[in-house]
Amino acid sequence: MKILIKNGRVIDPSQNLDAVADLLIEDGKIAQIESAIRNPQSATEFDAAGLIVAPGFVDIHVHGRTPGQEYKEDTATLTAAAAAGGFTTLCVMPNTVPTLDNRSVVEDVLSRAKSEGNGVRIYPIASVSLAAKNEQLSEFADLKNAGAIAVSDDAFPLQDADFMRRVFQYARTVGLVTMLHCEDTALTGGGHAGVGRGGGVMNEGVVSTELGLRGMPRVSEEIAVYKACALAREVGNRVHILHVSTRGAVAVIRSFKAQGVPVTAEAGPHHFGLTDEAVRGYNTNAKMNPPLRTREDCDAIIQGLVDGTIDCIATDHAPHAAHEKEREFDGAPFGIIGLETSLPVSLQTLVEKGPLDVTQLVEKMTTAPAQLLALDAGTLKVGKRADVTAFSPDENWILEEETIRSKSKNSPWLRQTMKGRVKATFAGGKQIY
Q1: What is the model's pTM?
Q2: Annotated catalytic sites, by residue?
């Protein structure tokens, strides 16, 4: 099987490559990149004139909902949405039913990915604790041997500093990154794992006051980020801060990085592309945790992406069924889908407005996240697996429910004009979109 992608602007940050060139895929791998490749016999041609050809996007923060919540998303719909968004590698979070806390569940996720994933690679991230109760450590070594590539507390943020310290010590021993949702639940009401009843449901500020909704203060995130970084400094393990949302959190991470602490961080397109103004009208599709913050927080996150404080972009794709989101704001679950809107929102916010160029954006969506978790992805080097995304940076389109590949439709950008669109995705040398 040979595919010749011709005339595209090939951008591969892993090789400092940015040039109009042809790319030949053969036997599922990158065979050649040259300024002009003569079409070999039997090769299928794809004309990428006017398009950017990049490594397949890598998302290290996805809620796949499998096993146990397939009514929200299953492996087939998850990977279809990924392909439409240009993603060929996904790392899935442990808040499944049952929790990703033992070998059998990890192996089940990997088996389904192989049989139903249409070539998109799925890597499980295991829970730091049994049943995500943050009382007893999971068996990290066994989980790693089964295929888990990191451990996380996402959806059930660690509160006890001594338990967090033991998590870090075990993770360091077995060589796993700890990925943390940083939230002091004493300040937010602890609504993340449930639907928020009685707890905070949006950013604490002017908008929450006007809407009469309980707020989640920025300091709840910033205290938790500081605690995680301080413990990482002591233990010496690698810590990754999930979905950074506040100006103060960016400043804390920047400070600890300057001290040489092995901390990395990510930001979601919603946290630099939207503010809490999107909640007006009690729009439950703008309800997430951490919540949408203010313009000054968005600006700080963008600056963090520019200066390297924030290492990569991740979607925090969190599908929910319509009947769950179509209810009063307090009772609706946290989370939005993001795989199919990550590229256009990032292009519009980061590239069109100028702080990053398209090469830097590609790096934040490919090479950087792959390197962060030591994944064999995010590159177009000859001999590597042919995961390739071709996209138009300029095409305008409207996000409509009926065209969303995800099983759930909970996006704050519904019926809005997007700029920038994936035109083709190749996974392992097979065109999957």
Answers
A1: 0.97
A2: 316
